[in-house]
Amino acid sequence: MVRLRQYAWLYIFLSLGLSSHAQFFKTAVSKVYSVKGDTLLLDSLSLVQGSLQLKCYPALDSLQMPSVLYNKHALLFKNIKPDSIWVQYLRYPINFEKRYYHKSPDILYSDMTRRGNPYNIQFNQKSSQENLFLNDGLSKNGNISRGISFGNTQDVVVNSNLNLQVNGKLTPDIDMVMAATDNNIPFQADGTTA
């Protein structure tokens, strides 16, 4: 019975502790602003239309009251500006005028007048690596193969094979004849080669 009471107290303290960290969004806002320019930005979130109430100090005529720009979340003053203004409004938890996206949509539309990749570096001179295999005095012949074998006991073996034959003149004084073969024979599951 004592242990059950301890578990009950533990449950109560944990549930109170977890629920006390919740944050609630405050939709109603009431502020007093001092007017310095002709435009007063109220909030960074979207305003609920028709919920705006304001009082100007000193009081203005109804024709001189500021106009509300809901899409800019701002008040636009005409000719006469008051010293300060009290504003009360409701707001949504997000800004509906802002564009939200995971990646920029500008990436989808490419400008054909520019290079495809601005980070690609191109050289005007040919590199020496391009001329490495362009020797006309050598004839090259060969093949490379890779294979995967599946056994009936669910074993997998990867095979590789290279055959290369080169002959010709390296320099006017040196003739070359070469035959290179590489057979990669893998070990089987029982530890032997095939």
Helices, strands, pairings?
Layout: H1 2-19, E1 28-34, E2 39-41, E3 53-57, E4 67-69, E5 74-76, E6 84-90, E7 138-150, E8 156-169, E9 175-184
Antiparallel strand pairs: 1-6, 2-5, 3-6, 4-5, 7-8, 8-9
Helix content: under 10%
Read across the widest sheet, the strand sequence of neighbours is 1-6-3
Tally of contiguous helical segments: 1
Head-to-tail CA distance between termini: 71 Å
Average pLDDT for all residues: 79
Q: How would you name the oligomeric state of the polypeptide chains in this document?
A: single chain
Low-confidence residue ranges: none
What does this structure look like?
The protein is mostly beta strands. Helices cover 9% and strands 34% of the residues. It has 1 helix and 9 strands; from the N terminus they run αβββββββββ. The strands form 3 sheets. A 3-stranded antiparallel β-sheet has the order 1-6-3, with no helix packed on it. The protein starts with a helix and ends in a 10-residue tail after the last strand. The mean pLDDT is 79.
Can you describe this structure in just a few lines?
By secondary structure, the chain is mainly beta. The chain contains 1 helix and 9 strands.
What are the main properties of this structure?
194 residues, mainly beta, three-stranded antiparallel sheet, 34% strand
